[in-house]
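To assess whether ligand presence alters the predicted conformation, the chain was also submitted together with fe (ii) ion. Input:
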Amino acid sequence: MRFVPIFCLRNGMICGDSLYGERGELVLARNTVLTADLILSIRKLNYNGIYVVDDISKDIPIVNTINDRVRAQTVNGLKDIFICNDKNLPVSQEKFTDMENHIETIVDEILKNKNMMVNMVDLKVFDDYTYYHSVNVAVLSIVLGTALGLDKTELCNLGFGALLHDIGKVFIDKDILNKRGPLTDDEFKQMKKHPSLGYDYLIKEFGGSLSSQLGILDHHEKFRGDGYPNDIKGEDISLFGRIISIADVYDALASDRPYRKALIPSEAIEYIMGATYTFFDPELVKVFITKIAPYPVGTCVKLSNGLIGIVTENFESYCLRPNVRVFQDGDFKVTPFEIRLADHKSLNITVIDFAEDFSNSDA
Ligand SMILES: [Fe+2]
């Protein structure tokens, strides 16, 4: 299978994986042949693109990080909690317990595929930022926690804290939250209260574990100090706070925001690596960059030598240097060949970005 961005989908392409709507309902079954009407409905669902299956990619398997239905249910549960708070309505204990159950399902899925790298395209299916970002932060945090050897109970606590890391923002003035330009000193002072507000909220309304609560409180602390709300440093910052801060910043950088386009994955990783020691715990960053696949299997990429191709394999030690099945001049009819970017003979070649698609092909 290969990933085709929404604007490159064409009639006759075959859907490689089932698609689910925002409430977790099936909207398109695997192997459905696309028509103009179906493409329009996929677009309306805010999908960035879908996996298709064709002759040039039928032997490339895609491993989703988490099941789309679980993700949709988690997003909807989270939305309910945010919306109730927004309207000053009480949030039932049941809603929090549902979230704990969704997180446990996500932890089980990730534990099943311990050696998998996170498919970052898979995490970018929808563009409803607030809630999907929180679920992504939870998934990235759990993946990092798994690689660090945390047990299942700890992973569930980590995921729960990560999912609710920004819950305190419901108590911040909407004009400040939605402001497009830079915040004034006073506005930033207000904004900086959201970790403590979220921490107090969780303790008062639900409880949960101390480690989840601290994850929320510490997610804007910086490894060398100068973070907020308590300006603590190094290992005085809770482990969950240190993990969530990496996941939060990476996913935010890799997402389109109203005021800027998403960074390409290599830039987002450069940023995380560049901010190691100052913002992030170096030991955690070292593990984090082995667990994400910025250019996941099945995505179409542009190489620095001008060729384009499909990623066929990723490696933990070289997350930016996958194997790529390349088509000379983008021509499907010519036998493809493989470039192994991690091979010493290919070190002068890099992935420079995602490629839109082989849109001129009729394969
Ligand atoms: Fe935050």
